[in-house]
Amino acid sequence: MVEVDIQIDDRFANQVDAELIEQAIAAALVAEGVDGAIEVSVLVTDDATLHQLNRDYRNVDTPTDVLSFADDDENDTAFVRPPDAPRYLGDLAISSESVILQAAEYGHSRVRELAFLTVHGMLHLLGYDHERGAADQAAMRAREELIMQQIGLPREPFDDRATTT
User: Fold this and answer.
1) What are the residues facing 90 on neighbouring strands?
2) Which CATH class is domain 2-74+83-163?
3) At what angle do helices 96-106 and 110-125 cross, to 10 degrees?
């Protein structure tokens, strides 16, 4: 069972498909063989908020499209969780403004971009990190594309994301 808490900024409520976010999260978990009770929180907001979060929590003073904050307490014995409590993976923050801009830039739908950023963030929560080097970036990109195919949103021939990011 996957529990997803999605908070969507009111300004973007009519542009964001919460069910798509849940589908992308579930697909990433299945693809990575993660089972059991899982909990993830998602915030969909604007570029300014992601910029502030990026600056405050990563010391990177630039806007970004998606941020992942993994739960670092998995091995922490200071807090004992009930045996039936879901495993909390962490939080995702997605910029709805970036979804719109990047969908146009990469030549695909906003639906695909929202799903892609969700999958990308989930893979970070599950331990992938494209910033560790070319091999890790290639491995993460392969997983992203596989998951996107599984949810029926493969990269279109004119989508140039494969050569960017």
Assistant:
1) 40, 70
2) alpha beta
3) 120
DSSP state letter for 112: H
Q: Among residues 151, 54, 153, which one has the least CA distance to residue 113?
A: 153
Backbone angles phi, psi at 15, to 5 degrees: -110, -10
Eight-class DSSP state of 44:
E
Token pair of 20, please? 């798509």
Give the pTM.
0.89
Mean pLDDT, residues 55-69: 95
Q: How many CA atoms lie within 13 A of 78 on its CB side?
A: 3
* Residues 6 or more apart whose Cβ sits within 8 Å of residue 145: 154, 155, 162
Q: Tell which phi-psi region holds residue 19, choosing left (phi > 0), alpha (psi between -120 and 50) or beta.
A: alpha
On whether the CB atoms of residues 86 and 3 are closer than 8 A, the answer is yes
Query: Are the CB atoms for 128 and 79 separated by under 8 Å?
Result: no
- Average pLDDT on 19-40 reads 95
Distance between the two ends of the chain, CA-based, in angstroms?
32
| pLDDT for 164 | 45
Q: Exposure pattern of 131-158 as b/e (b: 16+ CB <10 Å)? A: eeeeeeeebbbebbbebbeebebebeee
Average pLDDT, the chain: 89
Check whether 163 has a pLDDT greater than 50.
Answer: no
